[in-house]
Design a protein that fits this description.
The protein is mainly alpha-helical and 134 residues long. Helix content is 57%, strand content 11%. It has one domain. It is built from six helices and three strands; from the N terminus they run βααβααβαα. The N terminus is likely disordered.
Length: 134
């Protein structure tokens, strides 16, 4: 799996941006990004798969955080961190871009993600109903 600063900034979400400071908003988005990545691995990657994670810039920070998750840590064989941005992420060019531009579009991304997730759940329910009939 590959995470870069652009992959990280295309996932996440926020609520009430007017009520949140930029630092709190950025922290909230990072938490959502990590949750989405962890959920993706848990749901779609087989337990016996050997993961090699590659992270560039802020993606390297995400990889380091995923290593702290015991469910995911067991599956990881190697990590490759390319030009890691581990501290002062908000002050990097991509961090500034994220704070000023991307955060305003997060609600659209979360909305689309929820629609896709809902459709997947409905398909899964239909498959279960078909199995019960058979």
């Amino acid at each position: 799996m590959l995470w870069s600063d652009s992959a990280s900034s295309t996932q996440g979400g926020y609520s009430s941006p007017q009520a949140l400071s930029v630092d709190l908003l950025t922290s909230y988005n990072k938490a959502i990004i990590l949750w989405l990545q962890a959920e993706f691995i848990k749901r779609y990657i087989p337990e016996n798969a050997h993961l090699h994670l590659i992270g560039h810039s802020i993606g390297a920070w995400c990889v380091l955080k995923l290593l702290k998750n015991n469910d995911i840590d067991k599956r990881i064989r190697k990590c490759y961190l390319l030009f890691p941005t581990i501290e002062y992420m908000a002050d990097t060019p991509n961090g500034i871009f994220f704070k000023t531009f991307v955060r305003f579009y997060m609600f659209i991304i979360i909305f689309v993600y929820e629609i896709l997730l809902r459709e997947e759940r409905e398909r899964e329910r239909e498959r279960e109903r078909e199995r019960e009939i058979i």
